[in-house]
Design a protein that fits this description.
Helix content: 25-40%
Radius of gyration: 30 Å
Low-confidence stretches: 1-117
Distance between the termini: 70 Å
Strand content: 15-25%
Length: 700
Amino acid sequence: MRRRGRVRSARCERRRVRGRHHRGRSGAGRHHRDAAGGSRRRSCLREPEHEEPDEGSRSQRCRLRRDHRVDRARCLHRRDPSVAIRHRADHRRPGRPRRHHPESPVMSTPALPDPALPDPASATSMRTHRCGDLRREQIGETVSLCGWVGRRREHGEHLAFVDLRDHSGITQCVVDNDVDVRSEYVVRITGVVRDRPAGTVNESLPTGEIEVGECTVEVLRRADPPPFPIDARADGVDENIRLQYRYLDLRRERMQRNLRIRAAVNSAVRTAMERQGFVEIETPMLVPSTPEGAREFLVPSRKEPGSFYALPQSPQLFKQLLMVAGVDRYYQMARCLRDEDLRADRQYEFMQMDMEMSFVTQDDVLDAVSESVLAAAEAATGERPPPIERITWLEAMNRFGVDKPDMRFAMELTELTDVFASTEFKAFAGAGSIKGIRVPGGADQYGRNQLDKLTDRAKSLGAKGLVWLKVTDGGFDSPVAKFLSDAEAADVRTRLEAETGDLLLVVADEWATTCEVLGTLRNDLGRPPVHEGPYRYVWVVEFPLFVGIDRDSGRPKPGHHPFTTPHPDDVDKIESDPMAVRSIAYDLVLNGWELGSGSIRIHEPELQRRVFTALGISEDEAARKFGFFLNPFDYGAPPHGGFAFGLDRLVAILAGEENIREVIAFPKTQSGADPMTNSPVSADPKQLSELGLKVLPPAT
RNA sequence: GGUCCCGUGGUGAAGUCUGGAGUUCACGCCGGCCUGUCAAGCCGGAGGUCGCGGGUUCAAGUCCCGUCGGGACCGCCA
């Protein structure tokens, strides 16, 4: 009872302390943000009423997200991509003794630990094992674990189960004294590994056969209750709150796993590139602004007020100059920055595996990149994908309507132009291209309302309209059925292999529009979540050299960039039929996500001149805009080509995530803000004056 | 620049269409009970300026306008 009294008083005191602490913490948080200064939007964020998280996601989205999470977990369990990462200890040779002297110094982890050796990341001066390490082999050993207190299950004064958690997993510790430990306290627990009593094994935990008993608990740091549970339930928490407390979000298994998949991918990519003789070379972050491409982040120069650096949107020009420099094979895990609007698959800053090689053809580049991507996939999933297939851009457009086809599902575009060659139906007559897709069993799933929405969607994508046909036993249920001849109706049915109950969607327009609209609808209606089904890697090759006409200048726009080599078979057409010229440019696509792109570059001045001319760029303009880049070629540029793929996207898909923010430790929101650091913040007037800058009042 | 969805105790939701007292549910938190639990259980309690501002109304979480914040998408991303 004496002890209980102590506990009570300790808790009472804690309650008092906690009350003050809470207020103090909130105040401190505001103070911190106040110190950062900011615009009206940010000062609004700092208001007390905004201090507490107050934004919740809506039911449907959340339910979907939760369901998705469950499915994903199942799926991952099935494919088992992360076991090697999560439970590296499993790979230890049984019987090999573990080091468990608290004094044992442990040096830094090698980049590629030999899985056959004891994991050097395990023991430290303070612990003998990580929380996910212990198995039946350790029974009888006295161990020390360090970590955060997860769930506690108290059964009166002499028995409490504490789930001790670190990045590696959870171990149940049986505490029979009354130390006051609460959620997320940082503790060190020393005790003896023992068998769990019969019937109490937890099969859902890798450590579930054992527990640590006779525990001595040292509280290393008390902690306030977290704003959300540090487990899978936080998947449903508003992302803004997760980002505000990212350091807590990252404690969760899912996020730890994602960080480690990312590290494994990085490591595998580096190894694969180095094995192939590529040299990692860093290129500058402060670079000149380049005339073409994405909007750049500008960095003002202090030494030269009024002049600016740009942050690189890619190391493109440097890597090509490295080829001129005779490096032969370059690669870099390159941070790239683009000031364009953010999306689920786009952040301001992102990582690319950037590479370039000399004296090569397309096959050499594709082989080298494939090796690196497949090695990364194997590292993350434990399974090496089959060789990557190739299709041409034209085939991708015709069959899937997009240049980044998701080939995990069918619903391919079907050619119908010839069916309606002499149609009476005005909407189809004279259309450049008519194609359709079949939504199996879609007739019942799509009511009038949804079909109207699909039509709106098609129109917003540039189509003049959308024809829908519900397949019935005798024919079509459709507003346009009466305009189709019997022969046309029969042909449509046969071509699309339509069966009763299907929904058919038909678009008639210019070829590009028809493809694009149906390709988008195909994705809208048929695309599975990114983590489902097989991984379908595909090289899309033979991109057109020019795509579309620039609205402002009236010139053709380069499909990849203006230094891309035209396809040798099409070089003759650069002047006569530029839009028909293919290029040696290629994209790598995974499950409908563009992972990256590359090309064989032009290294001959004459060909470059012809392409510039086709692009409407005069010699003067070329010299002015690209001289700094192309003049070095005159000192001897080797034939070369390269590629870059986005690591964030690759990791996201391999981790089963729909959003690259989930595989970035500290991402930005869609508006480009970081709720944790509250960036961006307004600049100190002194900084501005040093840089010779003045902020204009907001235009109204 | 545009379209759409969403802001309700610490967290997630219901309530909003059809205005009538801050109502409800789950988790968490605080206290009590509890010796084999494992997202423990039982009992009790605290906690909200319904994002913010304006309007309509006798009356607004609910209707209208604006605004801030989050998300998805179009434009943009050579």
